[in-house]
């Protein structure tokens, strides 16, 4: 009998834990369940769905080179997964199923249902921890709780890390033809939205490996000093690849070890600081698994549920469209719309502007980001939004509200980033781009600020002060 490998957001053949386990058992048949209506319901938009689609096509080609057929089924909801997988298993005569875990709540429930359904008919179905060095629950505080603060989590992560956890999993060897043909990956159904230019985000593990190599060669050593400057391509831009598993964190960390004399925690400051971001990624996956309320549209800090968020359609639309009159915020939002990606510093600025200056419920911003991000990923996105809104783990204390104009001067000193994404301000002198005065705005056809920083800041402080105390 063959073994069934169920691919989800782990679209690669290198260093894939479940695939390696499946291949150890004999010939492999791969299957991908495309659950477009379910992913839409989760809030993903065309940029991610298109990247996902292209990633599956690339995976199919790579698998074909190994003689592994890839089957492709469309389903509407996760609830259909057990029945469809059982049917596929019957059709191909599979004796077992392997997959890599995903940690948000709906995904976990889907996987439990699949394992139960397979068990009922006597077929083993095995989940593997693959996208993290430590499975959720493996790193706990002294009291046995999930960490709710990053720094001690990161310390424990470094302390308990072993070479075995980082060892790359075997790529399957080519297998002889097993009489099952790959299925054509049907194109995405037509929809009203157009994805961003596919050339910005070439899909597949080869493209991912290429980016990783270029990052380590040209950017990593300057990462510590350049990672906050959106005008410079100073970060890896690997987030879409990590989100869909076209690249694994182990591959990243192994590359770091090779580059940094075998260390993740000491040595080159840029590289060490980049490793820290990968740990943040893992932290938020643990948070989603350990505090499932965050997967149910709830704040991590329950007392913040009482916050009096404002209804402000005009403000929300201005933010979405990059017309707030704060050039750095508008440049950020336009970068998101045009490229499907936003620089991390800008994600913080834009998210704080929505949740504090406009005092609009962070969940609306979270949903808007997810709809546009090519790297849209529940755990990191939710973690980032709750951080900015001061409702989450590690959250920014509510009284530390970024002044967007100060941030702009600090991180886009020459106004180059603003000029790129808000071209109507490009004619202005670099100094004037951060907060152009009335006359300059009028001439450029650029809107006036929709809020006054000081007044908006005070309004946010008052709203937070009115909350009941945290427990
Ligand atoms: P690099 O700086 O090169 O970092 C390497 C990798 O580490 C990233 O690719 C990413 O996988 C991970 N990483 C970096 N920073 C973080 C972080 N703060 N939290 C978790 N993981 C991190 N990241 C997503 O992958 N998907 C999202 O949907 C997402 N939404 C966000 C929303 C908000 C409001 C904020 C503040 C942050 C969000 N992030 C998200 C985290 C971060 O902004 C992006 O991962 C990063 O900008 C991606 O660029 P990069 O690949 O060049 O990152």
Automatic annotation (TrEMBL):
Alphabetically ordered keywords of this record = Chromophore, FAD, Flavoprotein, Lyase
- Tell me which family the UniProt entry assigns to this protein: Belongs to the DNA photolyase class-1 family.
Q: Give an example GO biological process.
A: response to light stimulus
Q: Which spans of this chain does the record mark as coiled coil?
A: none
Q: Which residues form the Photolyase/cryptochrome alpha/beta domain?
A: 1-133
**Residues the UniProt record annotates as site (Electron transfer via tryptophanyl radical):** 309, 362, 385
Q: What cofactor does its activity depend on?
A: (6R)-5,10-methylene-5,6,7,8-tetrahydrofolate; FAD
What terms describe the molecular function in GO for this protein?
deoxyribodipyrimidine photo-lyase activity; DNA binding; FAD binding
Recorded hits in SUPFAM superfamilies, A to Z, give:
Cryptochrome/photolyase FAD-binding domain, Cryptochrome/photolyase, N-terminal domain
Query: What catalytic activity does the UniProt entry give for this protein?
Result: cyclobutadipyrimidine (in DNA) = 2 pyrimidine residues (in DNA)
What is this protein called in UniProt?
Deoxyribodipyrimidine photo-lyase
Q: From the UniProt annotation, give the residues forming the signal peptide.
A: none
EC assignment: 4.1.99.3
**How is the cofactor bound, as the UniProt entry phrases it?**
Binds 1 FAD per subunit.
- Write out the residues that bind FAD: 223, 235-239, 274, 277-284
Name the Pfam families on file: DNA_photolyase, FAD_binding_7
User: What does this gene product do?
Assistant: Involved in repair of UV radiation-induced DNA damage. Catalyzes the light-dependent monomerization (300-600 nm) of cyclobutyl pyrimidine dimers (in cis-syn configuration), which are formed between adjacent bases on the same DNA strand upon exposure to ultraviolet radiation.
